[in-house]
Specification:
heterodimer, A: alpha+beta, two-stranded antiparallel sheet, 3 helices, B: alpha/beta, Rossmann fold, 7-stranded mixed beta sheet, 11 helices, elongated
Chain lengths: ~150, ~375
């Protein structure tokens, strides 16, 4: 099975980004830091109001959490994630049969195999073995769309 | 009065510093989004395209690598084939001018013939040790690699153009069709592997049906890269046609059908064409459907020839299609499609029985790439 992987960061190094893109990233970073700082301040304010038993504490708590979630989300989006690119080869099987005695053998595909290729004498009888099928099997999806059939 | 008070409270912050800070931030955000909202949206789209472009670049590079490795393995070249492969990936085919459409089919066919001959010659030069079957497979491999190269370059073109001009419409267009393009690129990546290994692909379903029908019968070459066998079927004589396998070929079935029709002076009771067809989302892969007309894809030259031939002698043309999606059509044949070939072969026999009389002659043409399918 061929499995090739390369990281985005590796490819990213090859693909030079221009200054504009970098400038944009730093602005985003500043915005994130400001929002984060303000969210923390709001949360602290909420805590102080809670001690004073002030009902407006809820608003500050809400604003603080929303800001915190937003800034964390933006930070995760901006961060260069290490992704793996793969080109996966699905296994392909070759079915060999003997038409005379119905002997059947299933193995992985090998270069040079083709459907209806004659492979020589059968190991069980005098017949000629032949490749009857070459296909890949796809496991059935767990969640099938059954509503619009 | 009460409404005014509410509005007043909403616009003017309270006495504490925090309220002032929030009020200023919200006002600033409002202004920023009014003036720069579209630009922010564009940057988000650009980033999305950038991610897909990285994936496309990876697929393109992998395709090139697989093509070079296969050439080295099969063709045993004396020099490094990388430079020639890179040249191959950049080949262009200029279609004929169609301002005056009369005769454009033949012009297009000629250009496609020249292209194919040039590709095959090029492959023979790059891979001198490859036999005829492998030359065809390598040609298909290189064509898939070239398709991936062009997809990557077109998307990169619009990405750079969009960034240069800061045009939301250029960026938006490419971002909207990106999922479909990525799907196609993934399909070509699968095709490339299937071609390099010589595995039968979904598109070869029609060829496989014909192969099953003509197996163990005497075959002869007819026209370019096509074989025909005279098969007794349900008391009729069936001329079964397919592209010659197991190399990656589609042949010229239109030309072959035309020749058999002419050789029999038009005395053909019916023509049945079997081909793989694109399914709609929601349909099951491997569904078999029947109809009328020429079941054949490609640039249209072969379809034109078939339609011309049947019109001359008023021969009924039946179609049997095996449904699959674009990914399955160019990937190694999936089990459902393989099993559907048996169903399609039974349908062929049924159509022959229902639409013709004993002693009639019929043509059964299995259309599609015959890679990995013998006869």
């Amino acid at each position: 099975m061929l499995l090739v992987s390369e990281t985005v960061s590796g490819l990213g190094n090859k693909m030079k980004r221009n200054a504009r893109a970098r400038k944009f990233s730093s602005i985003v970073l500043i915005v994130i830091v400001v929002v984060l700082a303000l969210s923390l301040t709001a949360l602290y304010q909420a805590y102080e109001l809670f001690l004073m038993n002030d009902p407006t504490m809820g608003y500050y708590l809400l604003i603080g959490f929303i800001g915190l979630i937003l800034s964390t989300y933006m930070l995760l989006q901006t961060r260069r994630r290490v992704q793996k690119f793969t080109l996966e080869t699905k296994p392909v099987t070759t079915t060999i049969i003997c038409p005379s005695c119905d002997f059947k053998e299933v193995r992985n595909f090998e270069r040079g195999d083709y459907i209806l290729k004659e492979l020589g004498p059968c190991t069980k009888c005098e017949g000629i073995m032949m490749i009857s099928a070459i296909y890949r099997e796809i496991p059935e999806k767990r969640k099938e769309e059954k509503v619009f059939t | 009065m009460q409404l005014n008070a509410l509005l007043f409270q909403g616009l003017i912050p309270g006495q504490d510093a925090l309220s002032w800070i929030f009020q200023i931030i919200f006002t600033l955000l409002f202004i920023v989004f009014v003036f720069y909202g579209q630009r922010i949206q564009m940057y988000i789209m650009v980033r999305e395209i950038e991610g897909s472009l990285l994936r496309l670049k990876f697929i393109r590079d992998e395709g090139r690598k697989i093509a070079i490795e296969t050439i080295k393995e099969i063709g045993k070249p004396k020099t490094d084939p990388a430079e020639r492969v890179d040249q191959f990936l950049e080949y262009v085919t200029i279609p004929p001018e169609s301002m005056d459409p009369a005769g454009v089919v033949w012009k297009l066919e000629h250009i496609l013939d020249v292209r194919e001959t040039r590709f095959k010659d090029e492959v023979k030069l790059i891979a001198p040790a490859a036999d005829e079957t492998n030359v065809n497979n390598l040609e298909n491999t290189l064509e898939a690699a070239a398709a991936l190269n062009i997809i990557y370059k077109v998307i990169r073109h619009f990405y750079i153009l969009g960034k240069k001009t800061l045009s939301l419409y250029i960026i938006m267009q490419i971002q909207m069709i990106l999922p479909l393009i990525m799907r196609e690129a993934e399909a070509y990546a699968s095709a490339l592997k299937a071609f390099s290994h010589g595995q039968p692909i979904g598109d070869g379903a029609g060829a496989l049906v014909a192969a099953k029908l003509m197996h163990r019968h005497r075959k002869k070459k007819i026209e370019k890269d096509c074989v025909v066998a005279k098969v007794p079927l349900e008391g009729r004589t069936a001329f079964v046609i397919k592209a010659e396998g197991p190399g990656g070929n589609v042949g010229k079935p239109g030309e072959a059908i035309k020749r058999i029709v002419e050789e029999n002076d038009g005395k053909i009771a019916t023509i049945i064409m079997i081909d793989a067809a694109l399914k709609l989302e929601g349909e099951k892969p491997g569904e078999v459907a029947e109809g009328v007309g020429a079941a054949i894809g490609g640039p249209g030259t072969e379809q034109y020839k078939i339609e011309e031939s049947i019109l001359k002698y008023k021969i009924p043309l039946n179609a049997i299609i095996i449904k699959e999606d674009i990914g399955d059509a160019v990937s190694p044949m999936r089990k459902e499609v393989f099993e559907a070939c048996e169903v399609a072969a039974d349908r062929v026999k049924r159509v022959i029985k229902e639409k013709t009389k004993e002693g009639d002659s019929v043509i059964v043409a299995g259309i599609g790439n015959s890679i990995g399918v013998g006869q």
